Amino acid sequence: MHAPPGHLANDLATITADVLARVRVRAPRVHCITNAVAQAFTANVLLAVGAIPSMTIAADEVAAFTAGANALLVNLGTFDAERREAVEIAIEVATEEGLPWVLDPVFVNRSEPRAAYARTLAARKPGAIRLNRAEFKAVAGFEPEAEPDGAALSAYALDCLSVIGLTGPVDVVTDGARTITIENGDPLMASVTAMGCAGSGLLAACLAVENDSFLATAAALLALGVAGEVASMTAHGPGSFAAGILDALHGLKRDVLIQRARVV
Amino acid sequence: MHAPPGHLANDLATITADVLARVRVRAPRVHCITNAVAQAFTANVLLAVGAIPSMTIAADEVAAFTAGANALLVNLGTFDAERREAVEIAIEVATEEGLPWVLDPVFVNRSEPRAAYARTLAARKPGAIRLNRAEFKAVAGFEPEAEPDGAALSAYALDCLSVIGLTGPVDVVTDGARTITIENGDPLMASVTAMGCAGSGLLAACLAVENDSFLATAAALLALGVAGEVASMTAHGPGSFAAGILDALHGLKRDVLIQRARVV
Amino acid sequence: MHAPPGHLANDLATITADVLARVRVRAPRVHCITNAVAQAFTANVLLAVGAIPSMTIAADEVAAFTAGANALLVNLGTFDAERREAVEIAIEVATEEGLPWVLDPVFVNRSEPRAAYARTLAARKPGAIRLNRAEFKAVAGFEPEAEPDGAALSAYALDCLSVIGLTGPVDVVTDGARTITIENGDPLMASVTAMGCAGSGLLAACLAVENDSFLATAAALLALGVAGEVASMTAHGPGSFAAGILDALHGLKRDVLIQRARVV
Predict the structure, then answer these.
(1) What's the pLDDT tens digit per position in C211-264?
(2) How confident is the model at residue C2 (pLDDT cuts 50, 70, 90)?
(3) Which residue of C has its CA nearest to A76?
């Protein structure tokens, strides 16, 4: 089932630089239905790479915003009634318009109604699903104490017809056929709220300019991981790190990606 | 129709320093009905200059908060049902109390229901309307491809009996009779979410201490533009720039305003 | 009624270092029902000290999140209908589960309905109530021009069976029997939005690992005050200060607490 990644791993830094360059030139519009905690940082990550975020969740506007966007982010954190209605409308529009969308099932491990809803969304063919290990287990139906391996992840990706971006100390990206592992990043990324959510926003921007969802997902996670490493070099803690990762994403250079990428 | 701006342009830096000094001394309360993305940054901009922000949108509280405030901000980003109700109540209270208020019709170019609603608000005599060029065209009824000139802007201001603060690489402020152009600012301002929204908050604070809405609007935009230039001198990208512009607004000195102002 | 604080004041720095060390090791989950303005900064303060924030206010999820948490924060800023419903559910669950919770009656001095609601919550035995002087007067039923003294504060704490953490240029902590005064902090803390709200979040994290609510409250306020002093040493204004206080909380050392604590 797994095609040998081979040159893909070697080339990911270059591919990522190309994807980011396209984001900067094309300035894709990314409509984000995301939690209130994450909205500002997600918008700032998107602006830092040159994309144009919008965030409305009002039922009578979300269709127009989604139809006018180049990609959609559906994040389930702070999941209230109004956001749920907005999600329904936005995914319908995205599906009609052939717009790629990202599912970020935040904290589904903490709320069974949320996990159940996330499963229905995962069945609606998101271009990519970005989540951490605990969230993956909840959405894919594993017990909390289970330790699903790479094969389980690939099987789930095939099942959803989606790309899975599993983030953590090491990130794994798979579409079921191809799997790569990204070892970049910094521990401070876990000490800034909405870092994962904002990564999903970046992923949506990459999907807007790269048709191969697997490459778009891998590019987004590599860019964020390398930016985190760059930011950590001057950060004194999570506050300066949060500002620093925006600075790093804004100025992320091809040679820094190539030099730092640790992809297997 | 246009009075020659003459000494006004020359004096704007001094006027701005005076307005900011009054904000610092009087600590005006600014009630902000604004989008969730912009709330924290807007509050921080207001606190940085010495104003006191409040942000509730609950229907049974917004009247008391508005009545107790010295100015009101109505921002249409993330425009949901609850905010719409809050806007109605707040504008009614502001009108009764003679409180100045600012309209910020965020992204009206992306949603026709929002543009239609913004038009009804613009007719209710806001002290000032701050918006970018695309938003101006949507709210004033121009086609997206139209290129309205200064005369169109002045005509619209006269029509609304309001001051228009059109922001972009160059800012234009007009009340129909007087028009000035502010060339200050930095490109990084466009890479920080809610910069425009926060500018509208700053404008509301200036309206609270300066009865001439034209001067208040010009002062707010000059202060923000100069603070952006100061921040860009030490920023490494949009993250450190966002923190830096708050630092710069907090400590903005009269001589820096005079030295840097580029007003025509 | 007042036990002489004596060695308590001397030992608070050490106690605070111990409490923070427990937070870092145990990583308590803190569910926060808080205003939209404060959510991101509160989450970042909690992450900075090693706690795990969650923020949902959706009625069908808040019970699960609260039941799975180690402490609860109830903040009344941006007080809308959905948050009110969430508060009811969350406090009920917290009471059933014996979970400590913090009441932060933001801006009750600006809205009588909010003050009335805060009084009903204060009667439901929060572990601690953190508020400023104007908010204390509104919630405890003093006139705005009254100047309640320490005895009034102690009486109110006894009345609520709660610890009161009164913050301002000088912080006062009392449970009615014990009272201490913390003189740490920096004026820039008042120029960053949600600093008080985030302090209440930190207090909830401390309650999760310290059964003596009086000590937990004093520890949280001392930690925040000292972190503010550390941040002010390198800050250039409120923007860099906000990042700096997160950095300082993340790396707050025992000897810095001991060296800087000014507790009476």
Answers:
(1) 999 999 999 999 999 999 999 999 999 999 999 999 999 999 999 999 999 999
(2) very low
(3) C56
Rounded alpha-carbon distances, angstroms, from residue A182 to A137, A149, C32? 20, 16, 33
Q: Across the interface, do A55 and B38 touch by the CB < 8 Å criterion?
A: no
Q: Which residue of chain B has the CA closest to C36?
A: B36
Residue appearing with tokens 């959609």: A72
C121: alpha, beta or left? (left if phi > 0; alpha if psi -120 to 50): alpha
A-chain residues near C248 (CB < 8 A): 237
Dihedral sign of CA atoms B79, B80, B85, B90 in order: negative
| Strand partners for C181 | C172
A163-201 pLDDT, tens digit each: 999 999 999 999 999 999 999 999 999 999 999 999 999
CB A23 within 8 A of CB A220: no
| Residue of C54, C244, C248 with shortest CB distance to A110 | C54
pTM of the model: 0.96
pLDDT at C203 over 60: yes
Q: Give yes or no for residue A79 having a pLDDT over 90.
A: no
Is C236 in Cβ contact with B44 (below 8 Å)?
no
**Whole-angstrom distance, CA of residue B89 vs CA of residue C59:** 26
Q: Do C48 and A79 touch (CB under 8 A)?
A: no
Q: What is the pLDDT of residue B6?
A: 57
Report the pLDDT averaged over residues B55-70.
Answer: 93
The shares of helix, strand and coil residues in chain B, as percent rounded to the nearest 5, are 55, 15, 30
Q: Which residues of C touch B58 (CB under 8 A)?
A: 78-81
The arrangement of strands across the sheet holding C71-75 comes to: C52-54, C29-33, C71-75, C101-104, C128-132, C163-167, C171-174, C179-182
- Establish if C264 touches chain A: CB-CB under 8 angstroms: no
Residue B41: how many other CB atoms lie within 10 Å: 26
Residues 167-206 of A with CB under 8 A from B: none
- Contacting residues of B for A61, CB less than 8 Å apart: 79, 111, 113-114
Phi, psi of C211 (to 5 degrees): -70, -30
CB contacts, 8 Å: C61 with chain A: 79, 111, 113-114
Q: What is the dihedral of CA A61, A63, A67, A71, to 10 degrees?
A: 90
Within an 8 Å CB–CB cutoff, is residue A134 touching chain C? no
Q: CB under 8 Å to A101, separation ≥6 — which residues?
A: A71, A72, A73, A74, A90, A91, A94, A126, A127, A204, A207
Chain centroid offset of residue B125 CA: 15
Nearest-Cα residue of chain C relative to residue A190:
C47
CA C83, CA C106: separation in Å to the nearest integer?
14
Q: Is a pLDDT exceeding 60 seen at residue C1?
A: no
Per-chain mean pLDDT for chain A:
94
Let me know: does A121 contact A94? Beta carbons within 8 Å: no
Q: Which of B48, B55, B68 sits opposite C78 (nearest CB)?
A: B55
Size of interface B-C (CB pairs under 8 A): 91
E strands, A133-187, in order: 163-167, 171-174, 179-182
For residue B155, CA distances in Å to A261, B37, B151, C104 come to 56, 32, 6, 49
Residue B63 near chain C (CB below 8 Å) = no
Which of C218, C214, C216, C228 minimizes the C-alpha distance to C256?
Answer: C228
For C92-142, what is each residue's pLDDT tens digit?
999 999 999 999 999 999 888 899 999 999 999 999 999 999 999 999 999
Q: Cβ of A60 under 8 Å from any chain B Cβ? A: yes
- In this complex, is the C-beta atom of B111 within 8 Å of any C-beta atom belonging to chain A? yes
Q: What is the pLDDT of residues A225-235, one digit of tens each?
A: 999 999 999 99
Which token pair is C61? 């999820």
Within 8 A by CB and 6+ apart from C259, the residues are none
